[in-house]
């Protein structure tokens, strides 16, 4: 009997020790902070409407003018006007290019940058090619020629320029575009709409007048007389000297 009691006492002691150890383990586990599972970053998707596209066009056109001006200065050592319209420091090809890239590649936000690079290269080059054809067919001038570059297509686009479009588009969509959209969303809606519509009216006027002036310049080269009030106005206010000072790299070519 003594042996049985002794055995039971030892078993009770071991059980108590096990219980104390288990309790200590529980306390230790509670003391260790749980590891937080890192959730993937949520990429905000932006909705594009007419007003935002107008702002994108404005900012893209202004940035394009600055970029072109600095580029030509670095190449030639003197300042050269790089306006694309008769009024204001704007280069509309960059504005239209920015809008096209935003509309077509907005869904790639948060995805692999390689896709954005390739999409920007294709879209930018395609638009540049079509713009060159339009300019030549309608106004009888070309403003750029890449015939001296390797891997060019009819001198209108080239592989190196496609690469530049790709890099510029990728950086724009990854960094500038989200920041710009955040700033635009901070503008009070009514004020933003009014400002955007004012810009739209201005650009329609500026683009229309610029197109009319360039078309009239082509007519003058072809010997078309100023036989109405519109042609007389354009000849008086937008003669060859003034247009040549605005479109400094435009070269006349025969229309086919």
Description:
68% of the residues lie in helices and 3% in strands. The chain is built from 8 helices and 4 strands. A hairpin with a 3-residue loop joins strand 2 and strand 3. It is globular and about 60 Å long. It has a two-stranded antiparallel ribbon with strand order 1-4. Strands 2-3 form a two-stranded antiparallel sheet. It starts with a helix and ends with a strand. The N terminus is likely disordered. It is mostly helical and 256 residues long. Helix 2 packs across helix 3, helix 2 crosses helix 6 and helix 4 packs across helix 5.
Features:
two-stranded antiparallel ribbon; disordered N terminus; 68% helix; mainly alpha; 256 residues
- Contiguous runs where pLDDT drops below 50 for at least 5 residues: 1-7
Class derived from helix and strand content: mainly alpha
Assembly type of the chains comes to single chain
Mean pLDDT across every amino acid position: 86
Concise synopsis of the structure shown:
It is built from 8 helices and 4 strands, in the order ααααβββααααβ. The chain has helices spanning 2-31, 50-76, 92-105, 113-139, 159-186, 189-221, 229-237, 240-246, and strands at residues 141-142, 152-153, 157-158, 251-252.
Topology:
Blueprint: H1 2-31, H2 50-76, H3 92-105, H4 113-139, E1 141-142, E2 152-153, E3 157-158, H5 159-186, H6 189-221, H7 229-237, H8 240-246, E4 251-252
Antiparallel strand pairs: 1-4, 2-3
Helix pairs in contact: 2-3, 2-6, 3-4, 4-5
